[in-house]
Amino acid sequence: MSTVPVTWVLESQVFPASHPKLREALARAGHAIVDWQDEWWLEESWPRLRGTPIIFHGSLENAAKIRQSLNWRPGSYCDAAAFHCSNWYPSAREWLLHRQWQILPAKELVDDGPRVLEALGNPATVFVRPDSPLKPFSGRVLASDRLSLEALDYGYYYDDASIPVVVAPVREIAREWRYVVVERRVVAGSAYVANVRSAAPEDPSGKPWKIAAEIAARLDPPESAYILDLCEADGELRLLELNPFSGADLYACRPEDVVAAISDLAVEMHRDASN
Question: Which pTM was predicted?
Fold first, then answer.
């Protein structure tokens, strides 16, 4: 574990259940904590924080904006383009929850639904989500004869009918797990129920952790640190999705392990950027 102090910029109101323990772990490890303020964008008054490795953890929107706009290093583990489903689904096919899927503009899905559904085996219901990890609308299950732009929140959270979406036959999910991956290695894990934000630490010796570790070791990573979500469907353990680390809830992942691995990576990346 690196002894170099790292500055963690936290938007703790976004993750009220997991951030208190993360803050405690950071304090024990001797790292600095700066509380994020949205006013910084309006006033361009964000801290300069030069000369120290910096890590943001909070909302997905701010994680992406920091990655694009600020010169913090590494700043934010949120290379949004790399997490588009269209960029990683093909290489993850052998583990992926979806056995069949289509990625196409939302308007094309609505206007040419019968052709799209035929390619998927004409399911009665489909799961639709944005291709983008920034999720301009939430993933949802829709009846195949009820596809419309309005059903995909068009006009509420976005107004571009050509945004790419993923459409796939529905699969029933029984359980879910979240893992933090750093440099192709699983460093922490949590079982969770996302809709009620219930979580419990995951056993590293269990089968889900081992499957996640295999995927992390073999899959071309979208970023040096990221989140890997696993699920159980029809008795199988399948890859549910990948998410940027800096904008994802850690649930009950052991904070000491997250802090150690992510901070060490940040120090290394900051050193490389300075040379």
Answer: 0.95
